[in-house]
Design brief:
CATH topology of the largest domain: Aspartate Aminotransferase, domain 2
Helix content: 25-40%
Largest sheet: 7 strands, mixed
Strand content: 15-25%
Radius of gyration: 22 Å
CATH superfamily of the largest domain: Type I PLP-dependent aspartate aminotransferase-like (Major domain)
Distance between the termini: 26 Å
Structural class: alpha/beta
CATH class of the largest domain: Alpha Beta
Number of domains: 2
Amino acid sequence: MTIPKPANNQKKKFDVHSVRGDFPILRQLVHGKPLVYLDNAATSQKPQAVIDALVRYYSTDNANIHRGVHELSMRATEQYENARGKVKTFLNAADDREIIFVRGTTEAINLVASSFGHKFIKAGDEIIVSNMEHHSNIVPWQILCEQTGAKLRVVPITDTGELMMDEYGKMLGPRTKLVSILHVSNSLGTINPAERIVKLAHDRGVPVLLDGAQSVPHMAVDVRKLGCDFYAFSGHKLFGPTSIGILYGKREWLEQMPPYQGGGDMIKSVTFEKTIYNDLPYKFEAGTPNIAGVIGLGAAIDYVNSVGYENIAAQEHALLEYGTKKLSGIDGLTIIGTAKNKSAVISFTMKQAHPHDIGTILDAEGVAVRTGHHCTQPVMECFHIPATARASFAFYNTKEEVDVLVKSIDKVLEVFG
């Protein structure tokens, strides 16, 4: 397997042990062993800067936004909207109004499926997804197809876990109304050729949604360079709070789409005869939002920018390369997902033990990995397996932790081998 190397243009020295000091949760013992947290694809840990931002908001600025003229409300509103600006810069969006706060990637996709879907997709139309999608990028489209009579088409994948791009190109046609494909696979680590996916669709006038839940923690994302029409990601995977996420949408689409939910703040005027909806982005942000989560997400973006994606890529590449070499040498262990362009995820099976047994034994050694189908049951079906064990790395992980993982797998072999 060939693993892509990051650009060799680091701007500052990276000290992983210093960085680990920013994450208080990593200092604890689990079952009497130092915690080795390798479940970052499920959720990442939070730096003290994010924790402090949440505490500071609730301690000094807690108030509702956009509706109050008192000092606390104005301070909370300013922080909330400042965070929107940070996200706009982070994604290189053209306009703050293209940034919609949602609960996470799942809600972002459901928003597009509901609002864009019911506006633009009719019976006989086609929506393209891939065989490696997370369930949250499958089920909303299935629901829409059931409601409208549209058809879901699925791009197949190779035995290395890569999209069959030739097949994708053939699927695009006059009935295709939307492509919705993940940027990076949570279960395989595959980094999809997002720019090419978008270009092929746009050449046929088809808009594209990219699921960026697994990309933004690991790589810089430029939505204008990608050219996508929608981009979704979750704060909790980006070292930020849970229950906050982003839907980026090109303004020309968002202006045409009807509100996703009704309530306060998404309106300009309400009478029993007629309601006038608010302007972007508030048209899609009904009710009191997760104000603390938005502020915490802004702090997480500041933190990631301070570390630098060059450093993140270099550290995670080294872990992927080292971990792949170490795990590949274990008898009976098979790595699932060997794409040439891959993120820092190693999913594996063992002849000797079921993934759930692997996870239980590793937990006893203080090692946290994810086991199961990872909300990608179609992927498991492709590889004719029920589940995998998945080690997913962040920049705060170390090669020493990979060694602990390998030693813990030796315990599995002792029990089942």
